[in-house]
Amino acid sequence: MIQFKNVSKGYAVNQRVLDGLSFHLAPGELVFLTGHSGAGKSTLLKLISLIERPTTGDILVGGRPLSEVSRYQIPYHRREIGVVFQNHQLLMDRTLFENVALPLQIQGFEPDEIARRVRAALDRVGLLGREQAMPLELSGGEQQRVGIARAVVNRPKVLLADEPTGNLDPALSAEVMRLFERFSQVGTTVLIATHDLDLVKRMGHRQLRLSHGHLVGG
């Protein structure tokens, strides 16, 4: 589903954030992306979602080279990718329904279809029935689940998560990771960047380990 072929990314001469990465993620696979702060984890996720372009090498998503995706096609590419952030990035003055519905509204879905998809997404994260609640009424773990619902409401083929449990205690972190496992079990390819090595070991999934821009494990 995701393939990197000798991918490098640099922002200055002789300064590469990522250097010669090659790996493959299968459809429905859940993989952890680990490494020290500054190892290049966030940059790698940005390359997949085309926030950044590689300096050299090829990236394929669903068999399509991202080098063939024009600037005008990027929004359509991103509809296939859900992104979960550490800080949720919820709109605090909008209900859970409105937060989760936002990507569908931007794409011009009909109201009935939006309502159906939002309810389905909230059901998958255990928040069905709380559509009219405000984010500040929720716990940190519940807010993160809303962020996940918003990321999957488009039914993406790929789900990227950048330190999604960084602000959560161990019990809530495990709960959120079990949600990601359930999405992978129904065919979504999930890539999670995290510093929580203890949690990674307990989960038992493959790990891609970065060190100073190089892939040293996985």
Give an account of the 3D structure.
With 218 residues, the protein is of the alpha/beta class. It is 34% helix and 28% strand. It is built from 7 helices and 10 strands. The chain has helices at 41-48, 74-78, 96-107, 111-124, 140-152, 170-185, 197-203; strands spanning 2-12, 15-25, 30-35, 56-61, 64-65, 81-85, 158-162, 189-193, 206-211, 214-217. A 6-stranded mixed beta sheet has the order 6-7-8-3-9-10, sandwiched between helices. The chain has a 4-stranded antiparallel beta sheet with strand order 2-1-4-5, covered by helices on one side. Helix 3 crosses helix 4, helix 3 (96-107) runs parallel beside helix 5 (140-152) and helix 4 (111-124) packs across helix 5 (140-152). The longest helix is centred in the C-terminal third of the chain and has 16 residues, at 170-185. The model has no long low-confidence stretch (mean pLDDT 92).
C-alpha geometry = globular
Order of helices and strands: EEEHEEHEHHHEHEHEE
Structural class: alpha/beta
Estimated share of beta-strand residues: 25-35%
